[in-house]
Design a protein that fits this description.
The chain has helices at 12-34, 44-56, 62-88; strands at residues 36-37, 40-41. It is mostly helical. The protein has a two-stranded antiparallel ribbon with strand order 1-2. The model has no long low-confidence stretch (mean pLDDT 83).
Length: 89
């Protein structure tokens, strides 16, 4: 006889988390495909990192999704800071 698996109810927190990670994934993929962040173009390394983060956030493991989201946000912050320095100088 096969053992029955219990089904876990999905709560509002799980739905909210899925929406946030989906938004991060779509944003990363859009920026990676367009190659522009604001007025300036992004380098190929940044675009590759964002595309990799978008693919990694598909994995249904919270640790992987969180790591991909944090890496994407830090890449975007570094890119925006680098572009701001270029524009001001």
């Amino acid at each position: 006889m096969r053992a029955r698996r219990e089904r876990r109810q999905v709560g509002a927190v799980d739905i909210g988390r899925a929406i946030v990670f989906s938004a991060v994934m779509v944003s990363c993929l859009t920026l990676a495909l367009q190659g522009c962040f604001g007025v300036r173009k992004m380098g190929p390394l940044t675009r590759g990192v964002l595309a990799s983060c978008a693919v990694a956030s598909i994995v249904p493991h919270q640790g992987v999704q969180l790591g991909a989201a944090l890496l994407a946000v830090s890449a975007l912050l570094l890119t925006s800071r680098r572009l701001r320095v270029r524009i001001q100088s």
